[in-house]
Amino acid sequence: MQLSREALLRAYRQMRVIREFEERLHVEIMTGEIAGFTHLYSGQEAVAVGVCEHLDHEDKIISTHRGHGHCLAKGCDVGMMMKEIWGSREGTCKGKGGSMHIADVAQGMLGANGIVGAGAPIAVGAALAAKLDGGGRVSIAFSGDGACNQGTTFEAMNLAVVTKAPCIFVFENNHYSEHTGWKYAVGTGSDIAGRAEAFGMRVWRGDGTDFFSVYETMRDVLEHVRGGNGPAAVEFDTERFFGHFEGDPQRYRGKGEIDRLRKVRDCLTKFRTRVTGADLLADGDFGRIDAEVRDLIEKSVSEARSAARPTADDVLSDVYISY
To answer: ∠ at Cα 119 (235, 36), nearest 5°?
Structure first.
């Protein structure tokens, strides 16, 4: 399926926003202004964007501790996210979520999650609500390769099959569960998606470093799930450019591994090469977007630095909700 010029520009811009957001955080964290752990998504942008380009705010997603990319791809505001990470009361969650717990329910982003595998049950609950509503909406649980070993994920997949919930389990296999190689930690060897298949759902696989592979794979997955066929799972092979967390010494990496990844598995480079080679977009189009995004990120950082911080009176606000 040929994407329009506008769709191609939007997809590239979304990936570039995520990349610049993360690369800038990598620099800013070293200043000591940002508190808490931060897990960067650089290198995996094609997955978040390739999945979320098919969704609108009525479809729901649940993320992981590495959630900035999913938030941005789903439509969360860049400036408010940056303020949230800086701990400002003007942030997406009023400074109470931070890097690992950003949520924006209005955009269908039910939250990032610091507990590995904890998002899958939430996604199934949201999928059951969508099924009861009958509007053809779906819920997506983003997980890493580490979450495929969690019992919560197994229980969620089983429940989704039993109830025929319109839930999609997206496994981003970035090759390292924290610091442990996936080929060692996953008993099925090179097949994470096959675990989901054992529960009775259809599975797909795709190249997570290629936006078009992700986009086209998700088109087929969503057609299946929106058609009332129950849940599905998909495994995207991808690789992160930074450590598990900021400050990770990455001694588990091979010599020259990161340089190789940035050279041959960069999803932005692959996208640009493909569309310019097919004369779908020109270098000037990318240059304009790159400049706009750099200005956007610079503005968001400047505003986050000066944004209001929470006060003592904010401690007990938004803790409970009345239905």
So the answer is: 105
| Whole-number Cα distances in Å, 107 to 4, 56, 57, 204, 205 | 24, 8, 4, 26, 27
- Residue carrying the six token digits 């520009």: 9
Q: How far apart are the first and last CA of the chain?
A: 44
What does pTM read for this prediction? 0.95
Concatenating the DSSP letter of every residue in 136-171 gives ---EEEEEETGGGG-HHHHHHHHHHHHHT--EEEEE
Distance CA 43, CA 40 (A): 9
CB 51 within 8 Å of CB 170: yes
pLDDT for 76-116, tens place per residue? 999 999 999 999 999 999 999 999 999 999 999 999 999 99
Can you name the residues that pair with 203 across neighbouring β-strands? 233
Architecture of the domain made up of 5-304: 3-Layer(aba) Sandwich (3.40)
Q: Where are the alpha helices (DSSP H) in the chain?
A: 5-28, 45-52, 68-74, 78-85, 119-133, 151-163, 182-185, 193-197, 211-226, 257-264, 267-277, 283-306
Domain locations in the chain as residue ranges: 5-304
Which is nearest to 98 in space by CA: 142, 144, 36, 19? 36
What is the C-alpha separation between 288 and 13, in angstroms, rounded? 10
